[in-house]
Amino acid sequence: EPEVTQTPSHQVTQMGQEVILRCVPISNHLYFYWYRQILGQKVEFLVSFYNNEISEKSEIFDDQFSVERPDGSNFTLKIRSTKLEDSAMYFCASSDFALTDTQYFGPGTRLTVL
Amino acid sequence: GNSVTQMEGPVTLSEEAFLTINCTYTATGYPSLFWYVQYPGEGLQLLLKATKADDKGSNKGFEATYRKETTSFHLEKGSVQVSDSAVYFCALTEGDNQGGKLIFGQGTELSVKP
In the prediction, which pLDDT does B95 show? Predict the structure, then answer.
C-alpha cells in the first residue's frame, strides 16, 4: 500500500541553524500539507500546498518557514533560523481530493532545537 | 472559527471493557469528521471517517456516528484490547473546501490494562 515517507526521523540542530525536513507524498496525490505537534499538545496545521503554490497557511507559518516541491516526488519544509520553540514532531500529509478528502500522514520527523 | 473538543485523558480501561471517547465540534459548512490514532512512537493513522450527517464510520471494531444535531462524533468500541493503547485524535475538515486543512482535537490517551 502506498505511504507517505519522511526523512530524517530525528533531527537535532542548534538554535539559529537552518533545517530542511523532507517528505515523499503518495505518488498520485495533488495536495500536500505540513503539521506539527509540540510534545503533549494537539496537532497543528502549518501549511497546505497545491499546484506548486501555498493554498493556505497558519499564523505559525511565518517568514522563517518555507515549503517547496523541488521535483516530482519530494516536498520539503525549511526553517531558516530555528528557535527553541520550533522543537516538535513535524508531520507531512498528502491527499487526492479528486477521490477522497482523507489525508494520509507520514511517520513524522522529530526536530530538537538546542 | 472551526474547532474540535475531546474528552480529556488519560483513559484507563481493563481489557474487554467498553470504550467511549467523546468528541464535539464547532464548524461552519458541512465538515467531514475523522478519528486518527497515534500508537506509541508512530505517526498518525486514519482510523475511520464520516462525510455527512448520520453516516457511521467503522474500522477494527471502532465506530463513530456523525451527529449533526448534537455536533458530535463520539468514538466507541465494544471490547478494547491491550493493543488499542494509543492516543486518539478527533478531527474535521470542511467538506466544501477542497484541500482544506484538518483541525484536530487535543487527543485522548487510552491505556488498556490486561
Answer: 53
